[in-house]
Design goal:
This protein folds into 2 domains: 20-110, 2-Layer Sandwich (Phosphorylase Kinase, domain 1); 117-304, Transferase(Phosphotransferase) domain 1 (Transferase(Phosphotransferase), domain 1, Orthogonal Bundle), CATH 1.10.510.10. Helix content is 34%, strand content 15%. The protein contains 10 helices and 10 strands. It has a 6-stranded mixed β-sheet, covered by helices on one side. Strands 7-10 form a two-stranded antiparallel ribbon. The chain has a two-stranded antiparallel sheet with strand order 8-9. Bound molecules: adenosine monophosphate. Adenosine monophosphate (AMP) binds next to strand 2, strand 3, strand 4 and strand 6.
Length: 337
């Protein structure tokens, strides 16, 4: 049985290699330097991630392959690499190397072996207490705090982009900077992308976005982690986004019976329609729910709904993968539950 160690809830924080600044190199990823395994670690909207090893050191890494078919794809990848290469922090995935052969860009990344946070916490042997939730949410806030201190907005914070470093400890890292943007507070920035469940009202309304846009997503992640329910989820993305603009959510479901008032207050202070009223990263890190270790240490969060949520996501992902593979004429063999 895996439980949080109260004396060392997060554990040590080193990355698997010293921080390094990375420049995008011209040419294919060097097979003299790296062994690329056929083992797939995961698939995102734009790329596929494979296990990879540096030959001389034996260092295990992850190689993310992204096809670039037009100028915009290349610009997006160059921006992602430029943003990531300057982000040295224990809660942020580290970039190790990058190659561009003209049609594919490969990012060699720190390997994160514990899988997606929600996949981990729904495992039978994981005891999900409210205390454990605070440990994860605190780390997410620390990562976002670092990003914001560097004027970077992540803009795609969602459970799939929070990975566990190992299957034993409680350390997490934020990944996927494909949608991240450098933010100049003196200039207005609007965007038209994101995942409906996690986008803030200002994105749906195409209003100016800011640091607070990421904090909304932290509020949604926290709501889902505590209950297994998605606060704004409708039958379609349009319904979901309508619920977001109305800021229509509540804590009425039975899943919240066990959840402390302090946790609900934390979520409520993030899920504010007005961005300026939301907690900042510092406000969140100083909220009693994240600083008062006496809070609900023993209260177990009911995982039934969270399991259902994660399995539904697996199916959606699998269906999307099948559609993508069918387009490429591939044979399919999937193991879902
Ligand atoms: P991404 O395209 O960056 O969202 O990655 C797609 C999926 O690949 C993620 O949801 C993870 O499951 C997996 N993944 C991405 N980066 C890594 C990594 N550095 N180590 C292990 N798995 C990863």
């Amino acid at each position: 049985m895996i439980v949080v160690d109260e004396n060392d809830p997060i554990g040590e924080i080193e990355a698997s290699f010293p921080y390094r600044d990375v420049q995008l190199k011209k040419g294919s990823i060097s097979r003299d330097i790296y062994d690329i395994s056929s083992e797939e670690l995961g698939r995102g909207t734009y790329g596929t991630v494979y296990l990879c090893k540096e030959k001389t050191t034996g260092l295990q890494l992850a190689a993310k392959y992204v096809k670039v078919t037009c100028k915009e794809d290349r610009r997006n990848m160059e921006r992602e690499i430029e943003i990531m290469s300057g982000l040295h922090h224990p809660r942020i995935i580290q970039l190790y190397d990058a190659y561009d052969d003209g049609s594919t860009i490969v990012c060699v990344l720190e390997l994160i072996q514990g899988g997606e946070l929600f996949e981990r916490v729904i495992e039978e042997d994981y005891v999900l207490t409210e205390k454990a939730c605070t440990i994860f949410i605190r780390q997410i806030c620390e990562g976002v705090d670092f990003l914001h201190s560097r004027d970077i907005l992540h803009l795609d914070l969602k459970p799939e982009n929070v990975l566990c470093l190992s299957r034993e400890g409680n350390r997490i890292k934020l990944i996927d900077f494909g949608m991240a943007r450098r933010y100049d507070p003196t200039k207005q920035l609007q965007i038209l992308f994101g995942t409906a469940e996690f986008v803030a009202p200002e994105i749906v309304n195409f209003d100016a976005i800011s640091y607070c846009t990421d904090m909304w997503a932290v509020g949604v992640i926290c709501y889902v982690l505590l209950s297994g329910l998605s606060p704004f989820m409708g039958d379609t993305d349009i319904d979901t986004m309508t619920n977001v603009t109305l800021c229509k959510y509540n804590f009425d479901d039975d899943a919240f019976n066990q959840v402390s008032e302090c946790a609900k207050d934390f979520v409520q202070q993030l899920l504010q329609k007005e961005g300026t009223k939301r907690l900042t990263t510092q406000g969140a890190l100083n909220h009693p729910w994240l600083i008062d270790s006496a809070f609900n240490t023993e209260l177990h969060v009911t995982k039934t709904k969270l399991k259902r949520y994660v399995i539904k996501k697996r199916w959606i992902k699998a269906v999307n993968t099948i559609i993508a593979l069918r387009r490429m004429g591939a044979k399919i063999d999937l193991d879902l539950v």
